[in-house]
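Example record

The entry below shows one chain as it appears in the dataset: sequence first, then structure tokens.
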Amino acid sequence: MAGSYQDVDTESEMDEDTQANLCCPHPLSAALSIIGFPCWLTSIRTIEQNEQAAVMTWGQYRGSIVEPGLQIINPCGVELRKISTARQTLDIQNLKCTDARGSPIFVSGNVVYRIYSAKKAKVDVKDATKYLHEQSPMVLRRVCAKFPYESSSGPSLRGGRGSMEDHVVGNELRKELQTVVHDAGIEVIKCDLTDLSYAPEIAAAMLQKQQAEAMIEARELVVQSAVDISSAAIRRMREKGHQLTPQGEERIIGNLLTVICGDRGVQTTLPV
């Protein structure tokens, strides 16, 4: 029956809700409840699972109920401001911003959060959920401006490298957002990008750039492999006892490189 309440400490940061006296939260409430004793018949309140309540007495915060169950509360001048502590999600859809290289992009994200403090959510801010909805896009723009759309040498918004770098953006986003919404009593559990694309005005140009970069990377891989194959072939021929002149080695290597690196079918030629 007894609830957990917490006193207000005006000299501290009030990071945690504090215990208060429910039956006698204020002298005026106590006096009125004694005069109108039958009003205690309406003093029983229910706090559901995953629910907290900030207790306001004559407009002043007196503590928070943090345990579920039946609570006996002085009925005179007392108001309960309830919040849900269950996990919730926030979707940020098609937010236009720029990456670290100044390229305009559209990004979407998902935030998993919960409210952990009735006092902060119902007293320190007017609407904790609205506060999160308004702050999240600004934080997302700021974090996106720190990373390139994609990169082969470090963390990027696109990720997909299969390493710890894939979580760098999400961790940075969660950290930045947690700092902003801490005063609203919100804990950011997880924050991820769900969709990412270039803005239409540069999408075609960036697609050509991606195709060119992919072709260059493929060519570099082919040439490197061709050199390794040619060197291995010469080495194997020597191990088999074949005597090769420098001119012969150059001809074999040249032919192998031509066959492997060429993008067309091989045409046989004979010296005349």
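Notes for this example: Residues 133 and 151 are 30 Å apart (CA to CA). Confidence is low (pLDDT under 50) at residues 1-14.
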